[in-house]
Write a structure and sequence with these properties.
Blueprint lengths: L7 H13 L2 H8 L3 H15 L4 E3 L4 E3 L1 H26 L5 E6 L1 H18 L4 E6 L12 E6 L6 E14 L2 H4 L12 E5 L5 H8 L10 E5 L2 H9 L4 E5 H10 L9 E13 L6 H26 L5 E3 L4
Parallel strand pairs: 3-4, 3-5, 7-8, 7-9, 10-11
Antiparallel strand pairs: 1-2, 5-10, 6-9, 6-10
Organism: Xanthobacter autotrophicus (strain ATCC BAA-1158 / Py2)
Protein name: Transcriptional regulator, LysR family
GO biological process, one term: DNA-templated transcription
């Protein structure tokens, strides 16, 4: 069935005029002259067979028909605008959804995505919060998480080992001479990861319980890393969380001891997705970035900035 619609230009002119209450304001929005808007509205009124405005000397007043038409048109144009935006946002290339913990996403993955897009401009990467702390969803293409084994039914590829190191600002580090000085410092703790500090203390040779002068607890690693950057205290961090900040000198490792913990950072995906074009591109790029991350750690070891040590068995 063919729709019998009035002029869309006339409807746009009327809707803008009705919202603003002025031909002049509508003309500015539509980037045409006031005369053009007034003429389009007049032609629309002629087409409909009734007036939409009562024209006064210094004001426009909507008629009852004008009020009814305006409310429906505004909703309709808003719907068209939203639809246009959503279609414009759609990409024709492969789409990849990766589940990843918020801290790794913010501190490591997102800062590197520009490099991925330069090499693979046709692939759209969508991130979902999860991977490290939430169950993997079936609609995700892959996940990056820290664990000892792959999830049931998933292939797992190791990206880099799980290692922790104390970090703080250079100013705070200048007050620390040995690991034992941490007893007089404020330690930053992540509430759901209470064993990270004890693990590092054991690797550093501090066998007895360490009771710091102060302790600040956060619910997430993202908040803990920001607190370290703000000089709140000394945080214990996974190397990927702080590798960029260490390389830039925004954070330092006051005691160059990296403790290996159980497990590692894994890229996981179902076997059925192995040949997915987006995943193939992402996997190759991700392993290259992981290799670079390991090279940075190796460089710091050679420079004496950090030293690897094994923590206690889990």
């Amino acid at each position: 069935m063919m729709r019998r619609l009035p002029s869309l230009n006339g409807l746009r002119a009327f809707e803008a005029t009705g919202r603003h209450g002025s031909f002049t304001a509508a003309a500015r929005e539509l980037n045409v002259t006031q005369t053009a808007v007034s003429r389009l509205v007049r032609l629309l009124e002629d087409r409909l067979g009734f007036p939409l405005f009562r024209r006064h000397a210094n004001a426009l007043e909507l008629t009852a028909q004008g009020q009814a038409l305006l409310s429906g048109l505004t909703d309709a144009f808003d719907t068209i605008a939203r639809l246009t935006e959503s279609v414009t946002a759609m990409r024709g290339g492969p789409v990849l959804t990766v589940g990843v913990g918020p801290t790794l996403a913010v501190t490591w993955l997102i800062p590197r995505l520009a490099h991925f897009y330069r090499s693979h401009p046709d692939v759209e990467v969508r991130m979902a919060t999860g991977g490290a702390t939430r169950p993997v969803r079936d609609d995700w293409t892959c996940t990056i998480r820290r664990d000892t084994d792959a999830l049931p039914g998933y292939n797992a590829e190791c990206l880099f080992p799980s290692t922790v190191v104390p970090v703080c600002t250079p100013k705070l580090a200048s007050t620390l001479r040995s690991p034992d000085d941490l007893r007089n410092a404020t330690l930053i703790v992540v509430s759901h990861m209470p064993n990270e500090w004890p693990h590092w203390f054991a690797a550093a040779g501090l066998r007895s319980p360490v009771h710091p002068a102060g302790e600040v607890s956060f619910e997430s690693n993202v908040m803990a890393m920001q607190a370290a950057l703000d000089g709140v205290g000394v945080a214990i961090a996974q190397i990927p969380y702080v590798s960029d900040a260490l390389a830039a000198g925004r954070l330092v490792a006051p005691f160059p001891i990296v403790a290996h913990t159980v497990g590692g950072w894994l890229l996981e995906y179902r076997a059925i997705r192995k040949e997915d074009p987006a995943l193939l591109a992402f996997r190759g790029w991700l392993h290259q970035e992981a290799d670079r991350a390991r090279q940075v750690e190796n460089m710091l070891v050679k420079q004496g900035s950090i030293e690897r040590r094994e923590g206690p068995s889990a």
